[in-house]
Structures are given as C-alpha cells and as structure tokens.
Amino acid sequence: MATTVHKTAFPFDKARLEALLLRRFFYAPAFEIYRGVAGLYDYGPPGSSLQANIINEWRKHFIIEEGMLEIDTTILTPAPVFETSGHVARFADWMVKDTKTGDVLRADHLVKNVLEARLAGDKEARGIAAEPKEEDALKRQPKRKDKAAKVAPVRVADEVVAEYERILAQIDNYSGPELGQLCRDHKIVNPETGNEVTEPQPFNLMFTTSIGPTGQHPGYLRPETAQGHFVNFQRLLEFNNGRVPFASAQIGRSFRNEISPRAGLLRVREFTMAEIEHFVDPEDKRHERFSELRDIELNLLDRHTQAAGSSVPKRMTVGEAVEKGVIANETLGYFVARIYLFLAKIGVNPKRLRFRQHMANEMAHYATDCWDAEIENSTGWTECVGCADRAAYDLSVHAKRTGAPLVVREALKEPIVTEKEVPEFNKKLMGKTFGKDLPVVTQVVSTMSEEELIKLKGQLAQGEAVIISPDGRKFKLTPEILTIERQTLKQSIREFTPNVIEPSFGLGRILYTLLEHSFWSREQDADRGVLSLPVIVAPTKVLIVPLSTKKFDELVQEVSSKLRKAGVFSRVDDSNQSIGRRYARNDELGTPFGLTLDFASVQHRTMTLRERDTTEQLIGNIEEVIAVVIDLCNGMIEWAEACQRLPRYTGTQNVE
Amino acid sequence: MATTVHKTAFPFDKARLEALLLRRFFYAPAFEIYRGVAGLYDYGPPGSSLQANIINEWRKHFIIEEGMLEIDTTILTPAPVFETSGHVARFADWMVKDTKTGDVLRADHLVKNVLEARLAGDKEARGIAAEPKEEDALKRQPKRKDKAAKVAPVRVADEVVAEYERILAQIDNYSGPELGQLCRDHKIVNPETGNEVTEPQPFNLMFTTSIGPTGQHPGYLRPETAQGHFVNFQRLLEFNNGRVPFASAQIGRSFRNEISPRAGLLRVREFTMAEIEHFVDPEDKRHERFSELRDIELNLLDRHTQAAGSSVPKRMTVGEAVEKGVIANETLGYFVARIYLFLAKIGVNPKRLRFRQHMANEMAHYATDCWDAEIENSTGWTECVGCADRAAYDLSVHAKRTGAPLVVREALKEPIVTEKEVPEFNKKLMGKTFGKDLPVVTQVVSTMSEEELIKLKGQLAQGEAVIISPDGRKFKLTPEILTIERQTLKQSIREFTPNVIEPSFGLGRILYTLLEHSFWSREQDADRGVLSLPVIVAPTKVLIVPLSTKKFDELVQEVSSKLRKAGVFSRVDDSNQSIGRRYARNDELGTPFGLTLDFASVQHRTMTLRERDTTEQLIGNIEEVIAVVIDLCNGMIEWAEACQRLPRYTGTQNVE
C-alpha cells in the first residue's frame, strides 16, 4: 500500500542543502553577527536535537549494550600530561607560508588541491567528460571544487598523470620534508597568489592557556578525551573489581587549532567526540561476542592496496579479515563491525561507508593497527570514526612519568613454578680473598647465563674453578667462597599493562554526512527539500498542525500531552501559514510524522496522520492515531504496517 | 508495612562522605597521578551517571515541559564578544597578595575567614558552646573550618562583635577598595604567615587563548553559556516564528579561573551549567502559567533584610512576593518557583533551600533584580542557581556594537494613529530671503514644540510671524516661505528589544549538595554509609546479585535483558564478595533496589527484591518481581505499594 519514493531523482545540490540547514538553524557559523571566526559553529534547535539523539543512540549501542563505564573528565589539562602523551612534541600539522603575503596554508592540503586541479585540467584538455561513470553510484556527487585551485585546461604527460595519482593515493603518508620536496619537484605554489611557499613547518594544534592567577600552570585544551581515561585507569580498574577486559567511555568537547578550517562541520576547531577506551589483556585480544558479528561484510581498504596506488576497497566479512590478518585482532575487528552497525542504524548509507587502514607513516607513533571509518560526502571520503589498537603505549608512558602502577594484577589459576641456579657468595671470605676486586668477581658471576652457572657449578664440585674478568684477569673460586644451588621459584600473580583498543567518533562529521545522505528534493517540486532522517535520530518526531489557531487549543493540548507522556517529542506549528507550507517546512526539518487537527477533529474526534517521505495520509479516531504514531516513533512498526491499521485519507488534499 | 528509617541518627560526617565519594569514584581530583591542579575534577561512573540523570530531569522539567529551544554553542569565544558584554572590563574578583611571600588570596574570602575565626575565638573565650542549638536541625552541620584561619580564644568587645556580624551579613556587597579598607581598619593579615596583604586588585576570571595559526584572534573560554544565546537571538526568534515570549536553553561547560579554588565541587575552574534565556516583552512580564504556581511557599531573604544585618528569610507564597513587589515581576517569580520544584524533585531538602536577593552592589551592573537559590551544606549556604532579570542589557549592547537588529517587530492589532503639526519650508524662497542664515532659521522651526508650532501657525495665518534665533536675532517669516499643516501619522509595527529572564544552574554544586543531603549511616553500623538518592537520579536503579558466579549466568542475562528493554539501568555484581558486602557497596553507590538470584531462583523461579533505605526484602516469581521493580523505577508506585504486591521475604537473612 505504501508508495515507493524515488529520492534520487534530482542530483545532490550542496548549495541548496546548506541554505536549508542555515535557514532552519540546524547550525550556523558562531558569532556570525561579529563576522565570526573560522572553524566554530553553533547548533540551533534542530541540530542540537539531532546531535542529542545521535548521542543517545550511541550511548545505548555502546555504553549500555556493553556495560561500559562512562566518565566525564576535564577539558583543561596541565601541560605535563600532554608532554608525556607525546602531544606537545608531535600533535602538529605541517604548514607553509606564502613567501610574499605570509598567508598560512596546510601543506598536505596545498599539494592535494593543486595536483587534483591539474588532473582535472588535463581531463578537460583531453576532452574526457568530468562526469562520473554511470554505474558508479558512489561517485555521483560533485567533487569538492576549491576555487583557488582551479586551473586552465592543460595537457599533462601520461607519466606525470600516473605520478600525480600515485602521490594522491598516499597523500596522508608524507612527512613535512617530503611535502616540501613535492612542492619543489612539482613546482607547487600558492594558487591564490602564484607565490612560492616556505619549507613546511610543524604547527602544534593544541590551544594553550594558563591555569591559576599567577600563571604558574601552563595548560592545554584537550585535543581528544582519551588522556582523561588513561590518567583515571587505576580508579576505573578498581571500580570494575580489578578485572579486564572492560571499557570506559566519554562524550565531550575537544579542541584543535586547525590551520585552515574550511569545509563546514567537517574541519572545525571545537567539536564533540565520543570515545571508548577498551582495556584488554595484551596476550588475549579475543572478544567474547565476536562470533555474533563474524559474518558482517565490510568494505576494507587496507594499507597494501593504498601503497599500490589504488583506492578500491575489498569486500569481506570481518571474520575473514581477522583470520587473514588484514585486521590485527578480534577485539579490533569486533569494534570495526560495531561501528559499522551503529552508523547504518542512525541512517548513514552503508554503500558510502568504507574502512581505511592507516599507512605506516600516517599512523600515530604508538598504534599497532588503525582503521578509519570513512564516509563519502560531497567533499570526498571523510574520516568520521577512528579505531586504533594503541597497544600499551599510553598507560606505559603515564606510569613511567608519574610512578603510578597502571597495571592489572591477575591471580594465576596455577602459579608458574620455575627452577633456577642461584649463586650464593660468602662475602666475608671473598673480601679477604679478593680485596678491592670483590665487585668485579661478583659482577662476573651474577651476569652469567644459566648454562654458564651449571658449568661453573660442575667445576666447583671438582674443588675449584677459574673465571675471567672483562679486562682479562683470572680469579680462582672455591666451594667455600661460592655455592650454586638449584632453587624453585613460584609466581602466583601476573602483572601486566593492558593494551587499549580505541574507537573514537567525531560526532559533527557524522552528523553532517548523515544530513547529506538524508537530503533530497521532491520530484514534483525540485525546490522542496526533504531530510529523510530515520525516526530514531529525527530532531522532532511529530508535528501537530491545527488548521487554524485558537479554535483547536484544547485538542492540541490533549494530543501533545499524550505524546509527551509516551516519551515522544512533538512540536506544535500554529503559525498563520497554510498547512501545506507548514508541512514543507517540517519536511526540511526532517520531522517524520504530521498530525492534522481540523473541524472534523472537533466534531468526530478524527485526526489525519501524514508520513514525510511518501506524503501519504491516514485517518482515524484520535486515540487510534496516537497509538499508531507512538508505535511508529518507538520503532515497533513501520509505515507499511501503519497503513494496515488505519484507512487511507481520501478527503480533500488540503495538506499538500 | 514499610519500616521507617531514621536517617539522621548520626551527625553528618563530611570526612566520611568524602572518603566514600572518592572510594566509589563519584568524582576525584583530575590528574591526580600528576598531583593535579586545584579546581579540576573528573567524574567517575556513578558521578557521571548521577549528573546525566540530573540533566535528564532538568531537560524534562524545563525544556520539554515548556517547549524551550535547546541550542549548543561554542566554548571558544572571540574577544570582541566579551568586550561588548562587559566581561573583559568587569568579570573579576578582588585579589590580594601576601606582601612577603607573594601568595595570592581572594580578598572577600580573606576578610570573611578572618572575621569568622575571630568571632569563633570570642565565643570560645566567653565559654559559649560552639555547638548549634538543638532545635535548629538546619545548623547541625559542622561549619567550615578553614585551618589557616583558626585563632586562639580571645575576647572581642561587644561593639566589635556587632560590627563583624554586620560586615559578614553583607560580605558580598563590598567593592575592592572597601575590602582593602576593611583589612586596614580591622588589621586583617594573611593568617598563614601573619604578613600584611597588598591593596585588592581585580583579577579577571576568564581563561585566555589564541585562535588560529597566526595568533591574530585573541579569545576566551566562556565563563557562562549566556552570550551564545544572545548572539543567536535573530535565528532563534525566526525559528519561533517571530514571537515572544520564548526561551532558549543550553547545557554545557563553562570556565572560570578561580583565584583559590578549594571547597571540592563547590568552587571549580571548569564546570557544567544549564542556562535558560527567557525573552519577554519589557512591557508585559506576566507569565501565562503563573497561576499554577502562585501558592508555592518559599524562603525569601530579600535585600532589605540583609542590609539590616539579618539572615533570617521570610516565608511567603510566590504570589504574595510578586504582589508585594518583593520579587520584581511574574516571570521572574514563575522561574523562582519552578527552580524550587526542580530542586525538590531531584532530592534537595527543601528546608535547606532559600532564595536570596542580590544586594545593590553585588548585582551584575545590568540586572534589575536577581535571586540566588542557595542550598545549605557543610560549608554554609551555597549559591546553586541564579535567577536574574537582565533587562534589555545584553541584546542592546550586542546590537549597538554589531549593528544587528536584535529586536522583535510586532504587528500592532490596531495601528497607533497620531496627529501632528508638520512644518514645510519653501527652500528656494528661503535661500533667497535668508542667504547663509537659512540653516539657523530651519533649525529654530524644526526644534519647536507642538505648542510653539500651533502658535506660529496662528501668526502665519495673520500674514507674518517673527522668530528669534538662539543668538537673539529676529527673522520674519511669511506663509509663502513656511506652511504648517496638521498631519495624521499611522504606526502599524511596534519594534522593541526584549528583556531577558535568566535562570542559570551550576550543576556540580547542585550535585554535591544533593550528595550531602542524601548521605547518612545506618543505626546499627555507623561505618556503613548510605546515599538515599531518589530513584529518578540514582546512578544505577537496580543491582542484580547472583549468589555465586557462573551458575546463574542465564538467569542474570534474562533479568538484565528484561530490565534493559524496559529502559531500567541495572548493573550486575558477580564479584566473589558476600552478598552482604555487595549490598553495602551498593548502598554507598545509592542504588535503590537489589535483586538476588540464588538456588531457589533456578528451582522455583523466585527472586528477592531489596529496598536500599529500609533493607526490607520481598520475594516473588521472577516475572512478578521484575514488573514491580520496573514500576518502582518508573515512579508508578512507591515502596509501600510494592510491599502490598509482593510478600515479605522471611527466609534466611543472607543478604545483610
């Protein structure tokens, strides 16, 4: 009964989406009336609510489902913490300056933009349509066009094209000096001015501040929430009764002083993250629920494929990926698959989602394996979630710096019993015998291997033995001076530093790509945008539309109060505009259901229910319709089932 | 059937509560393994969950109940915004330095601590017990004892005692120079060193940073979320279809570089706030739902009472307070009462809650009236919520600085029609007649009052008129040069800058005082602490306790999965400790209900249900017990009713 909606009839139009998002105040540049600062955005009511709903689903999917320990740690961080973690020395991007204007550019972005522009110019010169191949739905989006990087159509030699493509496939893999070399080799200049650029310099991305009135505590705004988990490891472990594996989770703001934030919510200076630190035995990275997810198929772009200059992912199950060693271990694979399920659940198009493995140079210095969930949008493939095996790096460096025992002590079921040859010296007699050479003799014996000790023991059993010091002198030993005995040692506690698997979500990037994936225009009216957000994340679930103001106040109160009691978030639109215009506004806001109250509602207690994507309408008794809409919002039924429970509305189509 | 629990049998012991909170990781000093920085705290799992539940109730009580517009704006703020708001010039505390050591002290705290210590010493010398009067339950808490401020028992003259008490009653009312004068007049020195202190200097409490790679954008971390609302006013108004009143709301981090943060969560450098900005017509501050709350009784400590040196609040209904002008207007009164209801709902003891009006000097320069919700705890009365009428200050200053029209344009139902005498000049003829004196003549006529114009019009009707310029010269006017006509003017739009009523909540302070109000020890065991947190805010609602591990895994899974589906947050404690110890731990965690699974559960599918405060236990079929516990957690029934639905458990008391 439900109509199929062709949402892809019109090509994606980014400018139109952006106008919608601003007009409906999903988000807007912060401090706009002060002409703003790049990289800062404020979320208005629908954006704020969409974000809250995504966070709510995240909490259910990860924290509650897996019994994680949620924490809330400070943003302000004293400098020593980031000195230890390596951020002060290494959390930097490479920047270049225009040699004449002093304008600052991010080095890798400069190389990428210029080479991409040259390839585009080459294609144009060769007369190859810039249009994507028809069969490749994923590439139907217009690619990012950086105005500054546009170049005239100029042919490039075939081997140079190949070289550019090779560079672009591994653009994240270059160091600063290598980026500098690329600029020189390929005559890359600031495309806005034509001026040369300086050698790449590192620019630390952390915001600095000073804590306290005397300025004695330099501090940073955290660029990630992770350190807040690590420094609290002991308390978390104790809270979990001393056992691993367990995970802590945190949702909160982080800050990065981006060199040139540009692409809307995709590269900002202040953002909300959700991070999990899953602490695991380094000798056992199996996951007890891995079998539940083994058969999930993923698009995996591993590092070998990238190094070979390709960006075509392999499709395989997570089970196969772990077996073949493409993904390093079960726990890492488990989280990669859980991330996939979460993103699909909130409405990201799974066909436009891939997992890309970090290349050797790109990976954080401590990580052993790292996979980014990349989602395709109008700017290309964007990293939205990172999932790294950070090994024991973090806990080890903090333990070393502070002396805190950031370890797990595990009672061994069976103590480990070892036997060992142990030398015992008669110090008094040795002193008499060797005088000032005593330490030399002790040192030689103490550093002997098990094998050497056994040999020495045999010689002593014969009456005497001779050892040679590092500087070639000989010393004679007797059984009175030295005895060597075999002893049994018993170890009942195993102490180890857990490894950390870290899934780390950039919520703003996910939110923005989700908006792109949800946006389309109606066939009959290309100017009418719709955001087909899934019910679970839609900012408002139900719009209540009284035909006119005042007259229906009581009914409006009744309906909205019943929905509120059922935990369904609704809004009333009693503005003076036509019902059709009010529905159009709410299609833009992504509200999945509309309830219309009119004179029939007062006379016969009926109400119509409208579905956003199909614009189909059903009608029924107010109580029945409320029951259906509550089931729809709680995910108990789909629209098709609602169509079976309520008759189609065939009255005057006053609402479109 | 339910037992009454005497929770107040033991006096409040702050040290024991603090040990509990640290042991169970409600919160802990941040970066403790780095020996921390004062004023920063991390929330562990129970604290984080308690905070999330308080926020959730806040969202329901304010945002959802009143249809507020929730927003999420940035913490980083460019400097011009806080220059405009007045924070750069005035958001400061007065600090003094020890003249020899350079130690920094907050001036008002210094005066307060020293005078309080002298009064305590005087009481001791006079032989007056420092113990509170028995009938005053509110004062049973030990007062804050600042170690540094302790003094020997020394008699103080009666008139000096009176003077000290007068100063302390209005300690928040002094300016910096006045605090300096008090130090000199009363010989107040640094109690830790005995050294004199410098003149008070203002210290701005905002953290500074720099935005962008070139350092060209100085910025601050916001000390409140309010400016994020004001700068977005136009978009919010548009979202609300151009109408006032409406409110925006925001929950988020703010930062204040406190001079000497000390009292745990009560004075910190980074904290979570919840703020509402209610925009209202300055000419109509009535509130449409005020009648619902009119009869709520409040403890009000108005500014006249304080100025008279008293701190005994008046008890009156909010209706009476607004009528008598104690509270400035209905909307302000409405929010004061709503704040009261919210705090009581989450478990704050209403007897230890008062509303104190700001005194003239203390109030922010822009506010017209301001009331703080103060909650009593072991450190005294602590401001936890502010509720201010900020008038049109904020929108006006931002509009002036940026030129943005931060106003409401309201279509008048009936246009305002006015009649007015309007002069019209024959400029050509005037030029000929008066030459360079033309502007003088025009100026004189244009600035005439209605009355003068009518008189002039009468003279012109006679043929000619004479006017006199400010420097005494006479000019002759004729009807050819000047005509004066009565015109009808019609105004159909009223433009105004809304006023702002701002309820502003410090969530950490509320959370901490709530913990104090919830803490007690069992009569039979003074060492066993209990946190009687209300079900709605308790971090975990249900503890599932299997008698031993492994054997009950399936049942544990069944019960926890059913609770999860019903939206009830439970935890399993399958540690090796006795059930009694596990319950004791969870009393400390404030978990209201416990479910015990034992061998009877496997054989007969029964389960016991334990209530935290009474330690009473009920028993029943697993399904029945789950149904009861879900109703308890959702607030559908109280414990007394649960006792009627399930029989008392009279088996072996294995759980205490």
UniProtKB/TrEMBL annotation, chains A, B:
Transmembrane segments: none annotated. It catalyses: 2 ATP + H(+) = P(1),P(4)-bis(5'-adenosyl) tetraphosphate + diphosphate. The keyword Methyltransferase does not apply. It holds the Pfam family tRNA-synt_2b. Its main location: cytoplasm. It is found in: Cytoplasm. Residues 178-546 form the Aminoacyl-transfer RNA synthetases class-II family profile domain. PROSITE patterns: AA_TRNA_LIGASE_II. It is an enzyme of class 6 (ligase). GO terms for molecular function: ATP binding; glycine-tRNA ligase activity; transferase activity. GO terms for biological process: mitochondrial glycyl-tRNA aminoacylation. Its EC number is 6.1.1.14. Keywords: Aminoacyl-tRNA synthetase, ATP-binding, Cytoplasm, Ligase, Nucleotide-binding, Protein biosynthesis, Transferase. The keyword Aminoacyl-tRNA synthetase applies. InterPro entries: aa-tRNA-synt_IIb, aa-tRNA-synth_II, aa-tRNA-synth_II/BPL/LPL, Anticodon-bd, Anticodon-bd_dom_sf, Gly-tRNA_synthase/POLG2, GlyRS-like_core, tRNA-synt_gly. It comes from the Eukaryota. One of its GO terms (cellular component) is mitochondrion. Homodimer. Belongs to the class-II aminoacyl-tRNA synthetase family. This is glycine--tRNA ligase.
